[in-house]
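The aim of this short unit is practical: by the end, you should be able to scan a pair of folded records and say something sensible about each. We start with the first protein, listed as its amino acid sequence and then its structure tokens.
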Amino acid sequence: MKTEQHIAIRQLEEKIHLFSSAVNGTSLATDDFVLSNTHISTDTFNLLLPTSAQIKDPQKVKTTIEHLQSQKPSFSTWVDHRLLHPDWTDLLKEYQLEEVERNTIMMLEQTEGMNPFTPSSLLIKEVLDEQTLLDYKNIFIELFKESPEAIALDNYFQRFSLEAIHSRALMFVGYVDHKPVTTGLLLEATDSYGIYDVITRAEHRGKGLGSDMFHYLLTQTENKQKCVLLQASADGKNIYQRAGFQPIGEMVVFE
């Protein structure tokens, strides 16, 4: 496994473990995969993450998927495209798990010399109390509108413990005229940083607010020599390349 690929998978392992533990969920690590189970029916935070291309214990993988499906919690499977060996593609097809999304994994080698954040109309606050967490949650859930996933995520955030994640992840909300309009999250993993949840409310998009949040997150890294990873949609890829990020792979999502 290439070093960049290893770093990306390891970061995601650490993230799903952290955000499962924030609601007293459970994690399982085997030679073939890592599983995060919040025991809430959310495919945003219940993740099966393959860690090897060739499956060493097919029965364990099958038992895990069958258990999840029998319990009926929603879950998703995230696979680095370089691990999409027939072992995994055939097994996912057997359980009727279909590809729903592909995102580009991108890396910035370091944040040394990053230009300081210049405030615009956006006031950025770290999530440290119930009100800022509520603002973060509301923006996050708006992506899912009134779907079952939105209901599950509301349940997730009701159980969420800031204390459980605060040593490893910083959550932020951006405000314009005292109204919450954008979010962002900076994760510190063992050998990398990760940028997640850069979300802007629909009525405030196209004003550069998400870009402001993204650049602010880059200034919040303590170890400037650590690389930064993110996952970009096709629409966002060029924006991140202009900031110095380079594609290193693809993450394929199955549900």
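Turning to the second protein, read its sequence before its tokens, just as you did above.
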Amino acid sequence: MAKARTTGITKAAVKGAMHEMEGRKAPPSEVPDGSGKTVSLKELLGRGNLVLYFYPKDMTPGCTTEACDFRDTTARLVAAGAQVVGVSADSAEAHRKFTDKHALNFPLLSDAGNRVTRLYGVYKKKSLYGREFMGIERTTFVIDREGVIRKVFPKVKVAGHADAVVEAVKALR
């Protein structure tokens, strides 16, 4: 009988494996929104469950598609008891322009110093065309009203993502 080969796949790489932040309290944070008003995690959770998604940059194709998909599923998320909030390192002014151009119906928060992205572990070394740089890895956190991270979607592929998030929020009930 042939000996089984080791594939090098870790438990974390297996689909459905729990992310290391699931079950933990969400890191507290305060950052400005598109109008420049400071918004805290505590304030957001006071309104119910939270879909907190981190994305690399306003006005880029993938980020625009993701934002518009969340815009189009906001009613379903609200019906399931959650709100959507996006976070990137873009300025409040850039967020305002992005929101206006795409009629976004949820707030975008500005983490210009990448303090919050570091707290959530999404500010990482990335590479593009052989060039390495630090940037935000597209990641979504579903956080319950008690502030506990219930689901993490790391390295998000945009297609179908918003629908998967709706299902994760529905599972909180």
